[in-house]
Amino acid sequence: MSVKNITYFTQNKSTNETIHILDFGYHKTTQGKPSTQTVVDHYSLHCIVDGKGTYRVHDQTYSLQQNDCFLLLPNTPIRYQSDEENPWIYYWIGFDGIDALHMMQLCNISYQSPVLHYDNIEELTSIIEPLTLLPTSTIADNYMALGQFYTLCSKLIQYNTSIKLPSRKEDYVNQAIAMIQNSYYKNISVQDICDSIGLERTHFYRIFKEITGISMHQYISSLKIKRACYFLTNSALSYSEIAYYCGYTSEQYFSIAFKKILGVSPSSYRRSTKSPQD
Q: Which of the following CATH numbers is that of domain 3-159: 3.40.50.2300, 3.30.420.40, 2.60.120.280, 2.40.50.100?
C-alpha cells in the first residue's frame, strides 16, 4: 500500500532568501508503479531509505537503492520508477532559488552527475522526517525548513571530502540560470544573458548546452510554460495576464508557444486541469 506525506511551505515575500523551500515529503511506493516522463519546475533531492528503483535523465539510466540520493532537475525530462519486486521508500526536499544549483554542486550533485551515495542515509532522513509530519506549515516552520535544508547540505558537503568547485563553464551556466529564473517574466533574451556574462553568444550557447543538455531557448521556454501551467491551474488570471506574467509579448504569441510545446491551447489545458466542482 502506497503511503505519502507532504508538507508544503510558502515564502515570506518580504525577505530575499536565495533558497526557497517548497515541500518536504515521504513516499512509500507501491510495486510495479509505471514510469512516466515528467518535467518539474524546481529541484527535488530524494534520499532512498529502502528498496530499489531507476532514475533516467539526459538519456542515462541510474539503478539506485538504499543509501542513494538523486536530484530531480528543473525543466528537464525525467523518469523515475520503483523496482517491481522491491519498491523503494524515500524522503525528499523540494526547493529552488538562485543559489540552488550552486548548493547542489557543493554537495557533489550536478546536471552531469545527479546521483550520489551516502552511507548513513538515516542521518539525512532524520533531518527531513519531522517536517513531513506537520499538519500545516507556519512562518516559523518555513524558517525551520530552510535551516534543515542547510543542515542536510552541510552533512553532504562534509561527506564529500573531495569537493570539486564549479568549473569556469559551470559558473557561467549558474549565472545564466540565476538570471533566467529571476528575469524570464521580463522577456529576457539569450543576447541579454550573454551580454551580462560577457561571452560571445555562439560560444556561450555551446557551453550552456554542454553543461545542461538543452539550449538556453529551450530552458527559457520550458520555464515560461511551466509557470503558465501553474497559473492556468491555480489562478483565475486571464490569458492576457498570464501571458504578461510569463514574459510573452501578447496573448496570441503565448497561445502559439503554449500549443507548440504542450500540444493543446491554454484554454484546453485550463479546462482539463479543473476539477468538476471548480
A: 2.60.120.280
